[in-house]
């Protein structure tokens, strides 16, 4: 269903709070058999998922700066990002667009960036699949005079000019704090994720564990990895339920599509009454289940602002000739959104919201009013 969504440049907090993950980077691979209700997209699907018409690319403006946003895969998570990106195009009169690597691997992401450089772009924003592996490509682009910022998932050892997005350690900590309320007497958990090589995955898991220090809540093992394959994601949950039995009392999905995978595996096994579910991001299945009380917590990000602010920041870097002045110029907009800036580290923390069945209704009502079913 395609729905026209009225957008205005100052929508910032309103839409950001409405259209919020992994994070996320996520779709299945070509040999994946997608299970019912899972919303991640198969790798064989070349185009982005169906999106509201507000995410349609505006007409190109001759002579205007060109910017490219590179995601770490195809997912409903990026629909909101594209809406924000194209709204920035209209507001500041630039030519910004986005592309997902296919397949969602570091090698494919490198090629997208190299092709973008060959096309003479004025700046690149990238959600990094493998933090260390992409450093060389980022450094080469910056050395060639093309500004590169990261968003959603960082490459902190690279020469990227700024990271824009969630402080994933703090997001993980927020999820861990919510878990403490779910398990006042302790619990045994297992986490699920695409790849622990991604900086956002590592940070979320470490932040979650940091919140649990001094409690009787523990992880039974390191996170199951699924390489962003939704079929494997569900099988991992099924395997954990089988292996740990009644010992397992909670499942944690670190990437957006892990939520639906957990929901279906838990329901199929008939253990929901014994299992708490903590997720990241707001895929349709996750939010629908949250509204019905079938998910206990989900931590949602602000992908609309990832797209909008990434284009704004890249344009300011081009205009100002550097990141420090660009951050100064962007600060009034960031202040409106209550976003934190660490200028010394060149990091913009866009923040998160922690949703539970008890507090989710206003959030879900805003989504529905805009014809959206996911963040």
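^ Assign residues to that structure.
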């Amino acid at each position: 269903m395609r729905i026209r969504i009225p957008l205005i440049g100052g929508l910032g907090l309103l839409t950001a709070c409405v259209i919020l993950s992994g994070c996320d980077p996520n779709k299945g691979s070509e040999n994946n058999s997608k299970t019912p209700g899972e919303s991640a997209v198969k790798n064989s699907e070349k185009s982005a998922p169906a999106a509201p018409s507000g995410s349609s690319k505006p007409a190109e403006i001759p002579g205007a700066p060109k910017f490219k946003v590179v995601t770490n895969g195809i997912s409903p998570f990026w629909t909101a990002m594209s809406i924000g990106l194209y709204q920035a195009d209209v507001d500041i009169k630039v030519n910004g667009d986005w592309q997902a690597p296919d397949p969602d691997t570091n090698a494919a992401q490198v090629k997208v960036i190299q092709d973008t450089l060959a096309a003479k772009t004025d700046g690149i924003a990238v959600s990094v699949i493998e933090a260390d592996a992409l450093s060389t490509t980022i450094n080469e682009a910056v050395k060639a005079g093309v500004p590169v910022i990261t968003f959603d998932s960082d490459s902190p050892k690279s020469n990227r000019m700024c990271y824009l997005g969630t402080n994933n350690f703090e997001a993980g900590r927020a999820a861990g704090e919510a878990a403490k309320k779910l398990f006042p007497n302790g619990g045994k958990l297992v986490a699920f994720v695409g790849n622990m090589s991604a900086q956002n995955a590592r940070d979320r898991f470490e932040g979650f564990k940091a919140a649990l220090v001094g409690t009787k809540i523990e992880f039974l093992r390191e996170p199951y990895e699924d390489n962003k394959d939704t079929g494997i994601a569900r099988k991992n949950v099924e395997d954990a339920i089988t292996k740990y039995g009644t010992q397992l009392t909670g499942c944690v999905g670190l990437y957006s599509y892990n939520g639906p995978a957990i929901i279906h595996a838990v329901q199929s096994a008939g253990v929901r009454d014994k299992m708490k579910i903590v997720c990241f991001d707001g895929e349709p299945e996750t939010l629908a289940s949250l509204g019905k009380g079938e998910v206990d917590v989900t931590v949602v990000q602000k992908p609309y602002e990832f797209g909008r602010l990434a284009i704004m920041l890249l344009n300011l870097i081009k205009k100002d000739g550097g990141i420090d002045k660009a951050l100064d110029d962007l600060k009034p907009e960031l202040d409106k959104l209550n976003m934190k800036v660490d200028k010394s580290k060149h990091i913009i923390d866009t923040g998160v919201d922690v949703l539970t069945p008890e507090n989710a209704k206003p959030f879900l009502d805003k989504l529905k009013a805009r014809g959206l079913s996911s963040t």
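The chain is about 40% helix and 15% strand.
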